[in-house]
Amino acid sequence: MSAADRTRELAVFLRTRRERLDPGSVELPARRAHRRTPGLRREEVAELAGVSVDYVIRLEQGRGLRPSPEVLEALAGALRLSEDERAYLFDLAQQRPTRQAAADDEAGPLSRLVLDLSPLPAMLVNHRFDILAWNPEMAGLMLDFGTLPPEQRNSLWLCMLHPGLRGFFLDRERALREGIADLRASWAAHPDDKALAQLVDELTSGSEECARLWALRDVRVNARGRKRLRHATEGPLTVEYEVLAPLQAPGQRLIVYRAADPASQRALDAIARDC
């Protein structure tokens, strides 16, 4: 991501976060409670953050400012940003050390751990969501990753563009929105990763659905949650997932699925027997 791209994205992100904020959720004088348009005014953001209105205007116009960590912290508080959104803001302003991406493309010893987690479906991905290792149960649940060309072994690419997985998520809108929000956080944290930028371009140009979700500028790093899935032969099932970050490869993520209920456990057991 170029400096100009970062500046432009910072401007749009600040503006969209301001416009989504409910004025009733912040401490503003009662005389300002009535308004015709949603969101906060620039003057109100400036007041809450303790900066000048002109400074907020220049930031939202992308006029080349690089806010200090103190100003970013004040803006994050004024805009009620989540922890993930706050980290995204700092990444865009290049006020946080870029995360180390070394060894992100190699599974190494973790590939053995992925296999040892059987019969729980598990896979290892890097910060681009490339699938580096998987066990038979994960392949049985989704598809046989080994039959795919390497450039397609990416969890977001598969969920967005692979025709065989169009109906895999029963809550497709929610699942993809969370995935794109996670991708946006990684994109900001790795501004010099050309392969990651190419993935974003491919997804947003190849899928109107992805382009729409990317434009929302949601930011969220998914650590755990629940997914409702539809398996080709076992039908609907629900899994709970955990995402673990190895200390020696912080850019990688170990994703583990567990059944959320007895019926889903029976479905996973059947999938495991067929592996």
UniProtKB/TrEMBL annotation:
- Which N-terminal stretch is annotated as signal sequence? none
Say which species the protein is native to: Nonomuraea solani
Q: Which PROSITE patterns match?
A: HTH_CROC1 (PS50943)
Top-level division of the source organism's lineage: Bacteria
Pfam families, per database record: HTH_31 (PF13560), MLTR_LBD (PF17765)
> What would you give as a GO molecular function for this chain, any one?
DNA binding
Q: Where is the HTH cro/C1-type domain?
A: 39-86
Which protein are we looking at?
Answer: Transcriptional regulator, contains XRE-family HTH domain
> InterPro entries under this entry?
Cro/C1-type_HTH (IPR001387), Lambda_DNA-bd_dom_sf (IPR010982), MLTR_LBD (IPR041413)
